[in-house]
Amino acid sequence: MKTPKLAKEFMIKTSHYDNEKASFVTMFIEQLKHTKAEWAGRPFKLLSWQNELIKTIFGVVDQNGFRQFRSCYVEIAKKQGKTMTAAAIALYLLIADGEFGAEIYSCAADRSQASLIYREAVAMIAQSPALSKRLKILESQKRIIYPEMNSFYQVLSSEGYSKHGINPHAVLFDETHVADREMFRVMTHGASDARRQPLNLFITTAGNNTNSIGYELHQKAIDIRDGRKIDPTFLPVIYAADENDDWTDPKVWKKANPSLGITVSKENLALACESAKQNPSEENSFRQLRLCQWVKQSVRWMPMQKWDTCAFMVDKDSLKNRICYGGLDLSSTLDITAFVLVFPPIDEEDKYHILPYFWIPEENMELRIKRDHVSYDVWHKQGFLQTTEGNVVHYGFIESFIENLGQKYNIREIAFDRWGAIQMTQNLENMGFTVVPFGQGYKDMSPPTKELMKLVLEEKIAHNGHPVLRWMMDNIFIKTDPAGNIKPDKEKSTERIDGAVATIMALDRTIRHQGDNNQSVYNERGLLII
């Protein structure tokens, strides 16, 4: 039997391919039966991609005969048979992997998702007299017990799990693109150290949150696949269309759909594609779920490749005493507060320099990380995000911080949401700042929002690649009125956009006062229509 191509690609020199071990697993799985639709009751005949995956995971072993791969990341489009594949692997690990006292867990963001693999496994057991005799199903606990080996398979979700007492032989994480970061850490970092050959199987479609643990896994898999990183214990398996592929081309679909024509018909995929072409709001959903491309949200405003091109260096020291304008978005005391300074260019070669600052309450950082799936702690350690004592944002601390900035930079005006904290703006005025109320409607927001896009496309913005501001720019959903005016929509935008709003407000004040004669760019050339 030839060594699978996937195994050859990632097998290290001290490992070898054991076809006997690999074939034992595939033979076990092919004794199981399909459980749904027209396939129900038929033997589970592995498709070529499933066969290669399973033989690589279980057939590549080290000198002691233990598996080389301790983690496997599988990214694949929907309707390819991934849930059934995971259920079959779970049953093998529970019954036939030779591990006494094995603990097998299937995990997901919520109990319903976490139960999908379990339900598939239960349905397989029901169709197998041999398994039905050996296994005990505790439906109320979502647990399958194998008494002979003192082993069990258990469903866990982020809604309810224990951080203590787990010793997994295997963890099957379903849809890691929406995985809970803390649960992922608990289940995969050190919990299985006492096992000889544990296995973490991450199986997912692409997602839309580039600040999630799922995206970090995706990036790790890409880096290992492409040789930028080395981890011989991590097997990356990605079926996805390339970023620049034409998503409407049927030739591209096979990349993300290795079961095309079998578990999903070409006709149905073509219908879904045609619907996405007719309705632009469906495009990202089609690309994410059908082509396994990581996308952002239904209607993206900021082209992030263009934004990233503007990551020109911002030298804080060289900006000392320079004229600048501020934007302050206070949000609520429980959320992110953003203050952004925009420095106008001093000549035609110069750019608009952006200095953003962000604060969150110190005591609820861990809660925010778990809720938002965002690395606030990492940004804090890196100095891109500050905390204030307590469980609410301490406005007094921020006032003092802005006062210190005023001693370093020539802050001419600070724009703030007129519905924001009036007391704070009064305090800033008492410090000597000129504070300007700024409406959040189309009239006030549309001109600077369009101007920001224009400056980004012309590469006249310098933001130093600030990760928190980048995240917020990538979150923006734009609302448009019948006249073509636009504004950021906080209600529909994915996650936080406070820093983007603060930037837009500061940019407005900058533009209105630009030039020695204080003439607004809007007055010189009129409003920008995009």
Number of strands: 19
The shape is elongated
Distance between the termini: 61 Å
Report the total helices: 20
- The fraction of residues assigned to DSSP E strands is 15-25%
Strands of the largest sheet, in order across it?
A: 5-6-7-4-8-9-3-10
Which consecutive residue ranges, at least 5 long each, have pLDDT under 50? 516-527
Please summarize the sheet with the most strands.
Answer: 8 strands, mixed
Residues in helices, as a percent range: 25-40%
What oligomerization state is this entry in? single chain
**Structural classification:** alpha/beta
Describe the 3D structure:
With 530 residues, the protein is α/β, with parallel strands linked by helices. Helix content is 38%, strand content 17%. The chain is built from 20 helices and 19 strands. The chain has helices spanning 5-10, 19-29, 48-59, 82-95, 111-126, 129-134, 181-188, 213-225, 250-256, 266-278, 283-291, 304-309, 365-372, 376-382, 395-408, 422-430, 442-457, 467-475, 498-512, 521-525, and strands spanning 16-17, 60-61, 71-75, 103-108, 136-138, 143-146, 151-157, 170-174, 199-204, 234-238, 323-329, 337-343, 352-361, 386-388, 410-417, 435-438, 461-462, 478-480, 486-488. It has an eight-stranded mixed β-sheet with strand order 5-6-7-4-8-9-3-10, sandwiched between helices. Strands 11, 12, 13, 14, 15, 16 and 17 form a seven-stranded mixed β-sheet that branches. A hairpin with an 8-residue loop joins β12 and β13. The longest helix has 16 residues, at 111-126. Residues 516-527 have low confidence and may be disordered.
